[in-house]
Design goal:
The structure holds two protein chains of two kinds. Chain A is mostly helical. Chain A has two domains: 68 residues; 73 residues, no CATH class. By secondary structure, chain B is mainly α. Chain B has one domain. In chain B, 73% of the residues lie in helices and 1% in strands. A two-stranded antiparallel sheet of chain B has the order 1-2. In chain B, helix 3 packs parallel to helix 14. The mean pLDDT of chain B is 84. The chains are: A mainly alpha, B mainly alpha.
Chain lengths: 163, 501
Amino acid sequence: MAGISKTVAGALTIGIATSIYLYEALKLPFGSVAAPGMGFMPVLVALTVLALCLVLIGTEWLMASRSIPSSDQVKDLWEEEEEGESSGYQRPFMLVLTLLLYPWALTYLGFILSSIFLLYASLRIMSYRNWWISLAVAVVTTILANIIFSNWLGIYFPKGILG
Amino acid sequence: MEGLLHGFAVALTPVNLLFAFIGAFLGTLVGVLPGIGPIGSMALLLGVTYGLPPATALIMFAGIYYGSMYGGSTTSILVNIPGEASSVVTAIDGYKMARKGRAGAALFLAAIGSFVAGTIGLIILTFLAPKLAEVALKFGPPEYFAIAVFGLLVLSQLSGQGLLKSLLMVGVGLLLSTIGLDIITGRPRLTFGFVELQKGIDFVPMAMGLFGIAEVLQVAEEKLIEKKEIIKVKLRELLPNRVEFRRSLGPIFRASFLGFFTGLIPGPAAVISTFLSYTLERKISKYQKEFGHGAPEGVAGPEAANNAAAVGAFVPLLSLGIPFAPPTALLLSAMMIHGVTPGPLLIKEHPEIFWGVIASMYIGNFMLLVLNLPMVGLFVNVLRTPKNLLMPIILLLCVVGAFAVNNSVTDIWIMFIAGIAGYILRKWRFSVAPLVLALVIGPMLEDSLRQSLMLSGGKFNVFFASSISRSLFILAAAIILMPPVVKLLRTKLRGTSCSSM
């Protein structure tokens, strides 16, 4: 994304997703101002979001041409703490892959096996000690979670192949 | 007063006392730990409180929320790591005081400031919330539409990421809120062929994803760092000296009122109140030069302000049924899950909940004071837990929390996708809080808009017919337009003074 600021990248992505949404929303009955249909609000909001995306992209480019600092630098007041030094995107990427595998594993393998896998994989990805301590932590934590949440608090987890 | 006494009767039952304590304890713990905030922990516990009576569950959630405000200060003072965004300001002078050997005094001032401000805030809440609920009974769809628009616009202005970006996130939240069954016709819409989406996108997995999972991904990206030195505090060193105590009294009382009324404003009120209190105290103090070098006013004021703001945020929730911050949005979800409709009728239909929660906050506030000071050592030790152990456990707890809401794997999918989106949005410097709040307020906004238009036969002047909605729109417009107008005037004035020279 060289040459495109983070704000523009964000606005473009949101704009594309909103266009797909708008395409679907336009299929819904719009109604009239006196009797708004179920497409009324989705269409109006989607159009507003698209307009905002355009204004944001325009503003960013205008600021770039005048060498004014981009809004990328502005602090978010809701954020809890400052970000630390980045070690690259490899670890978050591997974690994302693990997360995407988990719901499948949960359905077929059940809570205990899939959660041991999730915990073990995430502990290893985050470089926690060595492999066998990670495995022990994963097994103990999952069993404890199962006892607390399933046996005591009555949450019905998928049992999978262990069921 | 009768209502409050009834509330104390509810809150003082052994079970409710126990859950108030658990809430306050957990709140302090999550306040201490950077990463998992009150939103994450409340979302996590939402699904596991089904078996509890509604009042008990809400008492615990309220405890987590205001407990986290207490906990955040401990790490700010002792380690210079704010556990919560609302404790960032405390770190400026709090850590300096700790470096000078006054850590105990700083912790005491933060705790006593939080207690006094919390209690003052509660007294105002006790009288203000029922009055506002009475007024709100007269509200129709146009007034509710005006409140929702006012809330979202003001929140966008105050989020700190720029108005356009925040408005865009509000828009995305509103788009997501329209997915599922249409409120008026009951027919499914915008589900993109996924039957699972017919029930809509639940707020809880979204909040857990955007705040919890995104944080786990962020920590995974960061380099592991050596633990910071934690300053040790002995119990006998906790009391401040007479000068420190005297200097803190004024800031605590001022911040109590300032914080409470800031809490009524949509947005990160607790954070803003700490900045306002710090700026005010620095301006009026006789010891201006000490600010930034360990001034007790810089600890007592902001800590009092954030607690009062947390209490103030309960006013719109309890009397109007509208949350103006993500933690109160979670409280709203908790109420809905337990079959309680928040809003002006809450005080009449469920007085045990309305007054029980308020009374429990008085008790919880006292519990926190007793809990925090002697247990400082224990809470700080939690910080020694390595992040690369803590985050995978948080990940598992998020999974359990998201699944428990509807016993559905779809919610885990939603949470993970929201988490990945939240991580990317953080990288792009888009704040996710406006998105989450718009997702909660969205259905009410749409419902009130469509009802208003239908009732008025499509006339837009219905939104300006009542003085309440008119005032709210004018106020929102003023808040939105003020900063650019002031900026323009400043530039013009500067230009004039330069040309006259």
